[in-house]
Amino acid sequence: MIMNIFEQVQKFRVKEMELSFTQGRWNYESWGGFDPITSSNAKPPGVELWAVFDVPQHQIDASWKNLTHTLSGLFCASINFLESTTTYSAPEWSFPPASGSLRYGTLPREAICTENLTPWLKLLPCRDKAGIAVLLDRPSVYKGFYHSQRLHLTLTGSDSEGINSGIMLEQTLTVVLQPNIRRAGMAHASEKHIQPSWSLSSIFGKQVDGRCVLAKSSNAYLLLDRGLVAKLKHLHKENGKFAVDGLNSENFWTNPSFELSAKPDRISVEENSLYSKSSSILYKFQVEKYSESDPFDIGLTWKIPVVWLCQQAPLHASRFLMGSGNERGAIAISLKSTQFSEGFIGSNSADERCELRVDVFQVVPWYVKVYFHSLQVFVDQQPKAVSDIIEKIRVSPSKDKVSPGVMEAVLKLPCQVNSAALTIEFDKGFLHIDEYPPDANQGFDIPSAIISFPSFRASVGFLEIDSLNKSPLLSKFQEKSPVMSYTEVLLVPLTTPDFSMPYNVITITCTVFALYFGSLLNVLRRRVAEEERFLKDKAAKKNGRLSLLLSKLSAKLRGRRWEPPQSPPASSSFINSKLVFKVILVAGLAVGWQYYFS
To answer: pLDDT tens digits, residue range 521-535?
Structure first.
């Protein structure tokens, strides 16, 4: 599997690529939006694919189409639908890493199932047979609130001809699960606002028996969020039972807030937290120390009720539709300040030149005809001039059945802003009957818009004693990834035709032809029968006396009354006038019907 991907990367000259399969939507308000996990792994629903190519400009689209077909076969998905120019775009500067060789496409309605997870697991050294991957139980993963499997590929050590190159493959599975309270059977499970206690066996139903023999290292990490650490320290100070630095001390099991079921091999504290007064705490567990007789099953038991908020992005983004009817409407993007922006940006709000930069990237299908000149901007519910708020904008109007509409904009908002909104009007187009999907009455999807904050970088740095054997996960946490948010997928109802009409037309046409040919064959058959009967009567008249005597003798022998035979009507050899009229009528209807539709 990995060799197949490597061959396709070299064949199509892919410098960097990312593919994600996501079910559900990341809840930025409850699960956070300002940390490396959220910024890198929170993806829009469905399939998202972007790739950077190292080919001439005129060959990028062809390489993109070939890449989509290849990935569609490897991952058992409908990624080949992204080959059409109506489904992908070429962002220039609003989507990182934006460049002229980047192509971006999404399939919001793609259903995610185990057929997509199985090829992803085949890329692991031991698949899901050993190591931490044994926890990836299909029912446990797919019953969660959110799950996203991500594949990031980077070409390393390549020259101009792609010789002596390698790839760095990064696989990430992000899952949001609800602990099984009955299976865990821990304290405070019945409380409404208390985080339920959990363990690996209660969440996934399995335990880790050891590391994969092909893995260089296998570690499990437990990260306490900055907000949780700050809340615990506040509770400890109020109760006076625990020292402030007790969370990262050697006596961590005496913590009055929670208890861990296993002793961590190392405890690390975040360094240089710029955007928070508190620091995250990381517990490290070495999986290779455990075996089948002593499996790894980390668990956390809460002792007191704790409620905290995860650190959020500077602004919370949401998107919705305005208007009614099947003719026109408007798309609105709403930005609302969060506690993070009030705490961090508010400190600099005294400076009149303090500005918050927000990048907006939005792709709209061609059948939603957007009028970019109708763009309006509202700041704190007050209309503002577009030139005062939007520093830079690039629009690419859609072309019918050729390309979607693309908008990239850079907003400069004041630091003390409470809310901002962008609205843009559109008309709903008409599609050919062959272009409607099977479930057209459900509506048509507009992919998620991407809201990024270039001035903010999400990173978590922990001190590593052994720099040579530095964990790849911790190295990824220390990378300053851009803070990004995905909005909701919009569902736009379009005017749909009566899909039963072709069936009705076919039915009535077949009925008319059946009547015509049936009546014609019936008339022809009756005429032959009448001719045969006439010939029989004519032959009977030649020896009529003999037959008459025989019939009289037979009647006397049977004791019945003799009745003389009736002569056939004179018109028996001719076609009935009613049948002639019926044939002419049906033929006239068929000719008129054919003339009307031609």
So the answer is: 777 766 666 677 777
